[in-house]
Every structure is written in C-alpha cells, then in structure tokens.
Amino acid sequence: MAKGWSFDPSEFAGMVEEDVGKKLRVISVQLLEKIVKTSPVGNPELWMSKPPPGYVGGTFRASNLVSVDEPDYSEPDGPDEEGYRTIQQGNAVIATSKPFSVIYIQSNLAYSVALENGHSKQAPTGIYANAFNGVAQANK
Q: What is the pTM of this model?
C-alpha cells in the first residue's frame, strides 16, 4: 500500500458498490412501508353500493408486491388488512437484492390505477407518487 493511504485505493470500488447496495435496500424498505401503510383499506360504510358477499378489506394493501430485476405480475393470495405480512414478505425480497439491482414495488390489481389517481377518500392524492416523493425528500 502506498505511503499515506489509510486503505488500498483498489478497494474503493468494492466499498462504493457495498454502500450503493445498502442505500438501495434502505430506500426500498422505506418506500414499501410508506406505500403499504398509506394504502387504503376498503371501508364498506363509505361505499355508495354494497360490498360483494364475503368482502374483507386489505386486498389492495396485500397487492403491493416486491420483486428484484423483473416485475412480478401475480396477485395477492389474500387480504392483509394491517399490512404486516406484506411488509415482511417485501423486506425479505429486498434483502436478497444486490447493488445496482432494480427493485419493483407494484400492484397488479385492476383498480390500482384508479386508487393512484385519487379514487379513494382515504388516499385522495394517490399512494405510490406520494410515497416516492416523501422518501426521495427524506433521502436528499
């Protein structure tokens, strides 16, 4: 190692790569938590029409799927009214990501676009864009 260096300069690229990976995972976890926690959960008392028989709120919340490097086009296997399972499963996927990965957080439900466009009184300004803007602002 050259005199005056506290570490070998050739190790710098590896350190940067590791830091990028950590930051990617931290921001992805923040986004997922914000998206899930602000996702509206159907409240039939607010609806103009009756809910379908057997309706359970939390399907949209559960539909916030996480995948790495490729989108996941599946749908949730059931509702998650509180969002804990969705966050736990998403965080497990995020933990598998490598530096410079693309992490997808998406909903494939047909009505997710309407919700993002303010269709819900619980999220009149959407979900994903708000989460992105808030997390981006916090990580400047």
A: 0.85
DSSP 42-107: --GGG-SSPPPTT--S-HHHHT-EEEESS------SS--SS-HHHHHHHHHHHHT--TT--EEEE-
For residue 140 the two structure tokens come to 């400047």
Exposure pattern of 7-20 as b/e (b: 16+ CB <10 Å)?
eeeeeeeeeeeeee
Number of other residues whose CB lies within 10 A of the CB of residue 90: 24
pLDDT digits (tens), the chain, 140 positions: 556 677 777 777 777 888 889 999 999 999 999 999 999 998 777 777 887 777 778 999 999 999 999 999 999 989 999 999 999 999 999 999 999 999 999 999 998 999 999 988 899 999 999 999 999 999 98
CB atoms closer than 10 angstroms to residue 36: 24
